[in-house]
Amino acid sequence: MSPRVTFPHKVLPYLLVAPQLAITGVFFYWPASQAIYQSTLREDPFGLNSAFVGLDNFRRVLSDPNYVNSIQVTAIFTVATALLAMAVALFLAVMVDKVIRGRDFYRTLMIWPYAVAPAIAGMLWLFMFNPSMGTFAYMLRSAGVYWDPLLNGNQAMLLVIVAAAWKQISYNFLFFVAGLQAIPKTLVEAAAIDGAGETKRFWTIIFPLLAPTTFFLLVINTTYAFFDTFGIIHAVTGGGPGKSTETLVYKVYNDGFVNLILGDSAAQSVILMVIVIALTAIQFRYVEKKVHYG
Q1: Prediction pTM value
Q2: What contacts 25, CB < 8 A, 6 or more positions away?
């Protein structure tokens, strides 16, 4: 049995974790506590007067048809973005893993898009599919497809999903490549010798061994779709047309910073935080049971 490691100074462990605890407290717990407190108040736009209203803000928000619509939009957007980003990244990682010559070059090219800011990524896709000047929009019109995401809600949703997934593919690709490198090649070679085809080898050997990586990325992509896609939606559609792309985080922005309804916006941020925590807990409680760590 290896000897137990002990710190000679009892205060040293606390000093080592103090910076991280301070950052977490200042940038997470303190804003979260302020949001919870503000969600129980009704304030004027300038914050000069406030009155305690208890749970009235939550009741008004949950009974608002526009907020229910935002929940539906967020559910569709989150599921589609996470699945598309992970599926494409896994496919590309498997393809790149087969490349022998120039493998590092291809991997570098795949990682670069992750360095693009969300707003810039949104503008790139907006320019490409802009109905008046976009190259791909012109190609769609030439093929007889009516394309105008500025007026068509379904097309706007499709555009922001593709833009958000494209931004996250590089991140997923990096982890899938690392997961593929950790799989013993002898297992795949043994299955090939036994006569298993390429597709069968993937679903029976490679993908099950990637389960820990896939589960980790599922949690990360869910959180990404909820929060980090604000810049993309703001740049591409602004929540429109007709609130067809107004996700929960974008509605918090609209009500709090645009319409200056501070109490309702704070209540929405608390509800959003509870939803994300609950989804993460459900994923760890039920999905992780199906994950096997070798």
Answers
A1: 0.86
A2: none
